[in-house]
Amino acid sequence: MAFTTTATQQTSSVLTDEQFYKDVIKGLTSTPKRLDSKYFYDAHGDKIFQELMGCEEYYPTNCEMEIFTSQTAEICKAIIAGGDAFDLIELGAGDATKSTQLLKYLIDNKADFTYLPIDISENVISYLNITLPVTLPGIKITGLNGEYFDMLKKAAAISDRRKVVMFLGSNVGNMPVDVAQGFCRELRNNLSEGDMILIGVDLKKNPKTVLAAYNDSEGITRRFNLNLLERINRELGGDFNTRQFDHYATYNPETGACKSYLVSLADQKIKIGDETISFKKDEYIYMEISQKYAIEQVDDMAVGAGFKPLNQFFDSKKWFVDAIWTA
Ligand code: AVI
To answer: Which atom of ligand 1 is the closest one to the Cα of 288?
Structure first.
C-alpha cells in the first residue's frame, strides 16, 4: 500500500466536499480557468502518482532516492550534529519510502529521536503508526493528522526537543516561487533557533529532460491530470467527458516554471451540480506548477526565509538537491 501527499494537498477529511466544490467552481469560473493540484491525490490519483514515480522519464523520485541511499550516513550525521535528542518531523509523509533510509540509519546508530510524520490524510497516519514499528523495530513514532502548520504547533506543544523538519520530493515546487518563499518563512516562524530543515528541491536542467518528466511517453501524467476531472465527476456529480480534453505541459527554462494544462478539444458545456461551465475549443485549464530552481536560488530561498544554508546533497547527475538549513 502506498500513499502520496504533497506540499499543498489537503484532500482528506480535513477539507470537506463543500470546500472541494467551492474551489472547483471558483477555479473554473475564473479567467483563465484553473484547478488546484492539491486535489490530484484521491485514491485513484495516489495510484497514478505511484505509477509515475516508477516511470523512467519522471526522474525526481529516483534522484532523491539515490541521494538518500548513497549519502545516508552524511545526511544523518549532519542532522545528529545539530544536537542530541530531536523530533524528526516529516511534512506530507505519504508512505515514508524516502525517509525510511534515514530512519533506519538513525535507529541503527542509536540516535535519540521520535519520528513525527505529519499528513492531512488520516489513512496515511494510521498506516504509518501501524506499519513502521514492524518495518523499523525500535522506532518511536507519533503520527500527526492535520494541516502542516497546525501540526507543527502541536509538535512544539508535545515536546521542547530540537526539531528537524523534512520537506521532501520537491513538494515545494508545487507552489509558485513567491508562495514557496512565504511558505518557508512561515516554516521558520514555527521553528526555534537550532532547529533544522531538510528540503528536497528539483533543479533546472536540460529543458527536454524536464518536459519529458511531465509529458511522459506512456501518458501517465496525462491520466494523472485527467483524473481530477474524473474525480469531479465522481465526487461532485460532474459530467466531464475526459476524451474531450488533452494534456499539455510546458517548461520555461528561463523562469524554471513547468506548467500543466488540460485543453478543451471542442466547444462544450460541463455540468457540475447546479453550475454549467462553458468551454471554447482550445480553452485551457491551468492545473499545476512544478517549479525548478537554479542551485543559487535554493540558498537565496533559505536566507530570504531566515534560515542559514548548512549542507547540500546532490544526486550523481546534479539534477536534484536535498539541502539542510538551520534556523
Ligand atoms: C508531488 N510533486 C512534487 C510532483 C511534481 O513533480 O510536481 C507532482 C507531479 N505532477 C506531475 N507529475 C508529478
So the answer is: 10
Q: How far is CA 253 from CA 258, 311, 327, in A?
A: 8, 26, 31
Q: Which pTM does this prediction carry?
A: 0.93
* Cis, bond preceding 133 (omega within 30 deg of 0): no
CB atoms within 10 A of CB 56: 11
Strand partners, 322: 200, 313
Name the nearest CA neighbour of 169 among 3, 44, 43: 3
Amino acid identity for residue 189 in this structure: N
Q: How many helices (H) and strands (E) does the chain have?
A: 11, 13
Q: What is the pLDDT of residues 103-160, one digit of tens each?
A: 999 999 999 999 999 988 888 899 999 999 999 999 999 999 998 999 999 999 999 9
Residue whose CB lies within 8 A of the most ligand 1 atoms, among 3, 4, 5, 6, for a mutation test: 6
Which residue reads 541521494 in cell numbers?
A: 67
